[in-house]
């Protein structure tokens, strides 16, 4: 019977004695196979009949959801279950996901079933939004894979995923604009991120559960149904505003491959950070690097200044590099010498198509006056309009360098142009007259032609670090699996 009923045999020997004895009384040649199939079904196993696997899986998820709701609502008489008691020999992941909040104090509000997530765990899970937490349950075993308090979450984004053959949405929820420094396991991250995606039109039945007055109600979206409203509802349960890039704010000049869920154009550009591919999303409030983990967000007020906050560097015009500079953290600023300016924290994004420079320049001109300034509700639109009229020429002049010299979106040349203008007034033509007459005059080092703005390519430290990282990756290889940064359908 052990070979014909493997699930029943495995469980019979480890059940509590009274239950094991009662179960033995039911075991007959007719009932044993039925009990074995029931245990197989409830434990997340596959259907013994391959032809019935689709219906089996659908019913299995419904059963898991119903049992999960019953488990959460069952009184525990004030005692924690034994398997949740932490001890020195237990799994670190289980210790991480244990919560001091009882189910009665943190009732579920919304559940998305069988979702493939990229972060905080890379598994197919049920995502349960409760009153004070978001929990990730293994879709098959119901084991808690991870849990994040809602109070830790800071920003939520709904992104039209790039590079998918079918239109697709990606949800990114950040607990901090900057990710943890260094590589840490997801369950040990001090700044957890939630990343998952869904097809824009459901390719298969999508199931979710709501809890009206505590009673679970399972809903099924038919294949082909748009999923955007469902994802917006999910984010709303997190009590966070939705930040969504739109073509009215920024539109990529490159079509790219695959389909897009965005309307009117793709509001992001393909780029590389070191050797990792991803997308820079330009929003009204800042710039997001995603969907490749770890994601990072640069709010306008966190950029270093209007001159150095965002620069575009291009040596050939065919490709360009975007350099974002964030204000240094307070602990780094405290270590600066008196009077020393904040150097900022640079991040370089390379191998961007040169066609994107005009769109980036327009986005910068409309918002550069807000770089580094505390956000004032209701004042942003007026400041943007005033600034865009004054400095349109600055960014264009920097981005379009003559010949093959490097170009930058910073407006450092503004002051330099003013200084050179004064010198020309004093010298009655200065350099131009000297060149035309061919007079041999002593040339000061600061006036050397190679010291003029734009004469020599400028390369930021972040760009140098990026090139070094790419070379190092080619020589020694990357220990991290690049496949982990692609969302599963």
Automatic annotation (TrEMBL):
All copies of domain Histone chaperone RTT106/FACT complex subunit SPT16-like middle, residue ranges: 266-370
- Segments of this protein annotated with the region Disordered: 43-110, 379-459
Which InterPro entries is this protein grouped with?
PH-like_dom_sf, RTT106/SPT16-like_middle_dom, RTT106/SSRP1_HistChap/FACT
Skewed-composition ranges (Basic and acidic residues)? 82-99
Which Pfam families does the UniProt entry name for this protein? Rttp106-like_middle
Which regions are flagged for Acidic residues bias? 386-401, 411-443
Q: Which family does it belong to?
A: Belongs to the RTT106 family.
What task does this protein carry out? Component of the FACT complex, a general chromatin factor that acts to reorganize nucleosomes. The FACT complex is involved in multiple processes that require DNA as a template such as mRNA elongation, DNA replication and DNA repair. During transcription elongation the FACT complex acts as a histone chaperone that both destabilizes and restores nucleosomal structure.
The name on file for this protein is: Rtt106 domain-containing protein
